[in-house]
Amino acid sequence: METGNRELLKVNPKSKVSPEKLDEVWLDLQEYYYEGTNKQSFQKFKRSLKKIIQLENEIISCKAALHMVELGSDEGYEVLQYFKIKATEPDKIKSAIFRKETKLDFAKTAADRKSKKADSHEASTFYKMLASVERSLNRQLNTTEVNLERWVAYLDDIRQKREAEAQVAAKSKGKRRTAKN
């Protein structure tokens, strides 16, 4: 998270792994982490990813519809209208598709910016969080031995413990009020 270097995900640093595969692994790790520790951030992440995928699918569909129009099929116009492209001339259709591609580029840039900002924030607060986890566990952790699954389990356990303590405190507070009345 500190460096943003996906190459660090490789088991063997000398092996050749495609950037797409490294990105896929990174997204899987982020999903696992945020789903287990910060559900609100995970929901934002999913909404952003969903928007990007929908735009990509829309562009592919519009390009296919344009190709149908160029081949003389009127069905292509129906698809274009479904995606709110009312133009009938190929140049205007291409222009409308280009606007959708620009919208996709903006969405990807915004998602990437948010992801880098979140990664940077996570990296900078990790050591504070580590100290808090160690305090809650009453022991020091050897971070080289803690994998992601164990880390998420620690955080979830601490969250559950705090929720249980809060419920006990609320019940005892309610009993004190009743006793005073």
Structure description:
The chain contains 5 helices and no strands. With 181 residues, the chain is mainly α. The protein is elongated and about 80 Å long.
User: What is the helix/strand order?
Assistant: HHHHH
Q: How much is the radius of gyration in Å?
A: 25 Å
Instruction: Supply the helix-strand structural class.
Output: mainly alpha
Question: How many helices does DSSP assign?
Answer: 5
Low-confidence runs (pLDDT<50, min 5 residues)?
none
Major β-sheet profile: none
Shape: elongated
Distance between the termini: 54 Å
Strand content: under 5%
Number of strands: 0
Q: How confident is the prediction overall: mean pLDDT?
A: 84
Q: Portion of residues in helices? A: over 70%
Give me some keywords for this one.
181 residues; mainly alpha; elongated; 5 helices
